[in-house]
Amino acid sequence: MTPRPATKGWCPGAYRPMASGDGLIVRVRPLLARLTADQALGLCAAALAHGSGLIDLTSRANLQLRGVTADRHPALIDDLWALGLLDADPALESRRSILVAPLWQDGDETQRMATALVARLAGLPPLPAKFGFAIDAGPAPVLGRAPADIRVERGVSGGLILRADGSALGCATTAKDAAGAILTLARWFAETGGSVSGRMARHLAAHPLPDAFRPAEAPAAPGALPRPGETRPGPVFGAAFGRIDAGALARLICDSGAKALRVTPARSFVLEGGTAVSGHGFIAQPDDPLLRVDACPGAPFCPSATVETRALARRLAALVRGSLHVSGCAKGCARAQAADITLTGRDGAFDLVRGGGAWDAATIPGIAPANLPAVLGAP
Question: Is 149 within 8 Å of 204 (Cβ atoms)?
Answer without folding.
Answer: no
